[in-house]
Design brief:
Structural class: alpha+beta
Strand content: 15-25%
Strand order of the largest sheet: 7-11-8-9
Largest sheet: 4 strands, mixed
Helix content: 25-40%
């Protein structure tokens, strides 16, 4: 077979028609898959998520259920300004479009304030360290009570008029007062030391009359 015959067969109409038909089939297949997936997943369709923050859990659940959405409690928090069981946060947020049956996760308000265990700070930390740890846990601190002891050292904690210890569980609703040493011992203060006086016959000098020395001979 000559080279000319080879190229004539390679670029014949019959072969070109087959190649063109295969390309059309591939394009139609891709378009069909795309539209099929859009129809199956309801692409472009969605339900705007309503704002349920501040509502009670029952009302929020009813509102979402009426729209074809589900609700699940994912966490709890505490806000004393809001009633118990109120929704504090939601995910997805208001206005986001989701498919029917999508789950909206909510955080609800706890009926009581959280309690935390007092860390090991009594007689084991400075006032700055204790204040930093307690504040990070959410406790409110009152001005410290100064007592005799090493300066800025924590000797105790007072809550609602009574002393508490390391390991006690307290509510963050109650403020705490630290008992802090005022630094009553000053190492720079000069101290005069006086040697005690003793009587030659024994006993302390205060138990006897003062003995006067005889006058010196002239």
């Amino acid at each position: 077979m000559s080279t000319k015959d080879f190229f004539n067969k390679l670029f014949s109409r019959y072969l070109m028609y087959h190649l063109l038909a295969m390309a059309v089939v591939v394009v139609l297949l891709c378009v069909g898959v795309k539209f099929g997936l859009d129809l199956y997943t309801h692409h472009g369709e969605g339900i705007p998520v309503p704002d349920v923050k501040g509502l009670s859990f029952d009302k929020a659940s009813q509102k979402l259920t009426d729209l074809g959405l589900a609700i699940v409690v994912s966490d709890s928090g505490y806000n004393k300004q809001m009633p118990a069981d109120a929704v504090l946060a939601q995910t997805p947020g208001r206005g986001q479009r989701v498919k029917q049956g999508h789950i909206v996760y909510v955080t609800v308000n706890s009926p009581s304030s959280p309690t935390f265990t007092i860390p090991d700070i009594v007689d084991n930390s400075s006032v700055r360290e204790a204040e930093a740890r307690l504040s990070a846990m959410g406790f409110r601190l009152l001005p410290p009570q100064l007592i005799d002891g090493e300066k800025d050292w924590v000797y105790g904690i007072i809550c609602r008029g009574r002393r508490v210890s390391n390991g006690d569980r307290l509510s963050t609703d109650y403020p705490l007062m630290l008992m802090v040493g005022r630094g009553t011992i000053d190492d720079t203060e000069d101290i005069d030391y006086i040697d005690p006086a003793y009587n030659p016959e024994g006993g302390e000098a205060d138990d006897f009359e003062e003995v006067q020395e005889p006058p010196a001979a002239e």
